[in-house]
Specification:
It is a single chain. The chain is an alpha/beta fold. It has two domains: 3-117 and 296-313, ATPase, nucleotide binding domain (Nucleotidyltransferase, domain 5); 128-292, ATPase, nucleotide binding domain (Nucleotidyltransferase, domain 5, 2-Layer Sandwich). It contains eleven helices and ten strands. It has helices at residues 34-37, 45-67, 86-103, 112-123, 163-173, 181-188, 213-225, 230-256, 272-284, 294-297, 302-313, and strands spanning 3-8, 13-20, 25-32, 76-82, 107-111, 131-136, 141-148, 151-156, 261-265, 288-290. A hairpin with a 4-residue loop joins strand 6 (131-136) and strand 7 (141-148). It binds 5'-O-[(R)-(carboxyoxy)(hydroxy)phosphoryl]adenosine and zinc ion. Zinc ion (ZN) binds next to helix 4.
Length: 344
C-alpha cells in the first residue's frame, strides 16, 4: 500500500496530509492565515510566504506524528508546485524537495488545479472519467473536461474575476469582512434575490467563458445608491452569479461532448445555492452530480497528496530541480482568452 505525504502552500492555507491507496486520509493538518490577512481584505503575498515558512515544518511533523508514520515509510512526497503565489509555492516545494532528498523518496510536483480536479476521486471511488468539472474558488474559475490523470481540456475560464473573488469583493462592498463567500451566503438567505436589478455578464454569449467584473461594479453602484437593503443586494448578487453558472455550463456542455458526471470543486463549492443549482443541472442531463466534502473543496493538502498518488501510481515523479510555476495551466493547449488577467 502506497502512502503519500502532500504539502499545500499556494495561497493562504498551510497544509500537510498523508493519504494512502485505499483512499484513506491518515492525517491532515491545515493552518489558515485568515487572521493575518483580514486587516487587508485579501491575501497579502509577502505575509503569506512568511507564515508558510514559519508554520510548514512543525505542521508536517504533527501530521506524521498523528498518523504514526515515519518519513521513511512514506512512498513519495507531493507538493503544490504552482500555480499560485510564488513565495508560498516555493516554501512548500523546497520543503518537499528537502524531505524527498533526506528520505531518498521521489518528489511529485503537483499542479494545484490538478489537486482540485482529482479530489472528487479521493472522496468517491466510483467516479469514472471523463467528467465535467466546475472549478470555482478565489483564484480559479474554470470549466474543464477531465479525461484522465494528466489529461484535461479547458472549456471555459474567466476573462476577469474568479467567482470566489466576486463573492469576496461583494462582501467587501457590503462591509462583511474576509473571507467573504460564507458571509455573503448567510446574508443572502435573508434577502430577496429579485430586489436589485443586476447584470448577467456574457449571458447568451456563444463562447463559454465567465466574466464577473461588471457584476461586481453593479453591486458597488447598488450599494452606493442607498436604495437597497444589504441582504437584498447579497441575494440578488448570488442569484445573478447562479444564472451565470447555469448559462455558461449549458454552452460548455455543448462543446465538451459526453461525460459521466458533473463535478464541483474549489472553495465556492461550499455554497448551498451552487450545490442545489448543479444538482438540478446534472439531473436534467441525466448525469451524476459529485461534490466532495467541504474540507476537500477548499484548499487542502489531502487533494495534493491524492493527485501525487494518482501520478505516482502511473510511475510519474519529478526531478529535484523542478521550478515553482506562478502560472501553470492544466490544459497547455487552451488558447489565452481576451481580457484574461493573471488567473491560471
Ligand atoms: O479553494 P479556496 O479555499 O481557495 C482558493 O484557491 O481560492 O476558495 C476560497 C474562495 C474564497 O473566494 C471564498 O470566499 C469562497 O471560496 N467561498 C465561498 C463560500 N465559501 C468559500 N463562496 C461562496 N459561498 C460560500 N459558502
Ligand atoms: Zn485552490
Amino acid at each position: 500500500m502506497a502512502v503519500i505525504l502532500g504539502i499545500e502552500s499556494s495561497c493562504d492555507e498551510t497544509a500537510a496530509a498523508l493519504v494512502d491507496d485505499g483512499r484513506h486520509i491518515l492525517a491532515q493538518r491545515i493552518a489558515s492565515q485568515d487572521d493575518a490577512h483580514r486587516p487587508y481584505g485579501g491575501v497579502v503575498p509577502e505575509i503569506a510566504a512568511r507564515a508558510h515558512a514559519e508554520r510548514l515544518a512543525p505542521l508536517i511533523e504533527a501530521t506524521l506524528a498523528e498518523a504514526g508514520v515515519a518519513l521513511d515509510e512514506v512512498d513519495a512526497v507531493a507538493a503544490t508546485a504552482g500555480p499560485g503565489l510564488i513565495g508560498g509555492v516555493m516554501v512548500g516545494l523546497v520543503t518537499a524537495k528537502a524531505l524527498a532528498m533526506a528520505s531518498g523518496k521521489p518528489l511529485v510536483a503537483v499542479n494545484h488545479l490538478e489537486g482540485h480536479a482529482l479530489s472528487p476521486r479521493l472522496a468517491d471511488a466510483t467516479l469514472e472519467f471523463p467528467y465535467a468539472l466546475l472549478l470555482v474558488s478565489g483564484g480559479h474559475c474554470q470549466i474543464l473536461r477531465v479525461d484522465d490523470v494528466g489529461r484535461y481540456r479547458r472549456i471555459a475560464t474567466t476573462i476577469d474575476d474568479a467567482l470566489g473573488e466576486a463573492f469576496d469583493k461583494t462582501a467587501k462592498i457590503l462591509g462583511l469582512g474576509y473571507p467573504g463567500g460564507p458571509a455573503v451566503e448567510r446574508l443572502a438567505a435573508q434577502g430577496d434575490p429579485r430586489a436589485v436589478p443586476l447584470p448577467r455578464p456574457l449571458h447568451g454569449s456563444a463562447e463559454p467563458h465567465f466574466s464577473f467584473a461588471g457584476l461586481k461594479s453593479a453591486v458597488s453602484r447598488a450599494k452606493e445608491s442607498g436604495q437597497y437593503r444589504d441582504a437584498d443586494i447579497a441575494a440578488s448578487f448570488q442569484r445573478a452569479a447562479m444564472d451565470c453558472i447555469a448559462d455558461r455550463l449549458a454552452v460548455s456542455f455543448g462543446i465538451m461532448g459526453d461525460v459521466t458526471a458533473l463535478v464541483v470543486a474549489g472553495g465556492v463549492a461550499a455554497n448551498r445555492e451552487v450545490r442545489t443549482l448543479l444538482e438540478g443541472i446534472a439531473a436534467e442531463r441525466g448525469l451524476r452530480f459529485v461534490a466532495p466534502p467541504l474540507t476537500l473543496c477548499t484548499d487542502n493538502a489531502a487533494m495534493i497528496a491524492w493527485a501525487g498518488l494518482e501520478r505516482f501510481r502511473k510511475g510519474q515523479s519529478d526531478p529535484l530541480d523542478f521550478a515553482a510555476r506562478p502560472r501553470w495551466p492544466l490544459d497547455p493547449e487552451a488558447e489565452p482568452v481576451r481580457g484574461a488577467g493573471v488567473k491560471a
